[in-house]
Design brief:
Length: 263
């Protein structure tokens, strides 16, 4: 319903009659004690309660899908490991090292977004995560891997773009896109906003190396605090291939050469 924003189209997608769907939704709203939709002659929009229910239902559906997939894998005798990773962080070397000694385990990778860094570890979509702090580590076992510096991302037209390096004081008063008032939904959106002169951002150096593009410059911020990287697994995830992967990935990632600051 939330995707279609129209009772007729939603009913058609569900292969039921529109009056039946309308009655079911109104009965559900009475049961909850709050409206889920704002209806007009042209469209149907979610109320705040409806948006909350939609988000909760999406998470529940993801958990159920993962559980069913694992049941089928257990029935077939399959072993699968899903490795999540934050933007700019690379797990390929760790996966290659693990696969060399565990060829029977199927590996999937799962890009982690800023708004759900640790959530896929909690709902089962990922078994292991390679993340940057900060994130909620309650209920997770974390293994420190290293640190990386942050750099300032500016449009090439910015007055500071010609400098060799910056300090945090140089950025006082600049519109920071990572602030709570304006937080882009993706890196692509963030960099597009920066290139168009809508603000700047502080990003880890690995992100800067992975997302270079015309119209942007990256400058070292000499006094910016480093960002810790770590592996994380649920406290309950001590079975199957997870412990072996964690050991191999820890050794592999810690031995990787550190990223040098951007010149």
């Amino acid at each position: 319903m939330a995707e279609h924003r129209h009772f007729g189209r939603a009913a058609q997608a569900l292969f039921i009659a529109q009056p039946v769907l309308s009655r079911q939704i109104r009965a559900f709203e009475r049961q909850l004690g709050c409206p889920l939709f704002t209806r007009s002659t042209r469209s149907v929009e979610l109320t705040p309660a409806g948006k909350q229910l939609y988000d909760e239902a999406s998470r529940i559906t993801a958990v159920v899908d993962v559980a069913l997939r694992r049941v089928r894998e257990a029935h077939r005798g399959e072993q699968r490991l899903v490795v999540g990773f934050s933007p700019g962080l690379h797990v390929a070397d760790a996966i290659r090292a693990f696969t060399a000694s565990h060829p029977e385990v199927d590996i999937d990778v799962f890009p982690l977004r800023w708004w759900e860094r640790d959530a896929p570890l909690r709902d089962g979509r990922a078994h292991v995560g390679y993340l940057r702090r900060p994130f909620d580590d309650s209920g997770l076992r974390t293994v420190p891997i290293g640190h990386e510096t942050k750099v300032a991302c500016l449009p090439v037209t910015h007055p500071l773009a010609g400098r060799h390096a910056l300090t945090l004081a140089d950025l006082d008063g600049e519109p920071i896109l990572d602030g709570r008032a304006r937080r882009p939904s993706s890196l692509e959106e963030k960099f597009e906003l920066i290139a168009s002169g809508q603000g700047i951002a502080l990003v880890p150096v690995s992100v800067a190396r992975s997302y270079s593009r015309p119209g942007l410059v990256y400058l070292t911020v000499t006094d910016a605090p480093p960002v810790e990287t770590c592996l994380a697994v649920p406290e309950s995830g001590r079975t199957g291939p997870v412990p072996d992967f964690l050991d191999i990935a820890t050794t592999t990632l810690r031995s990787a050469p550190p990223l040098r600051p951007l010149s």
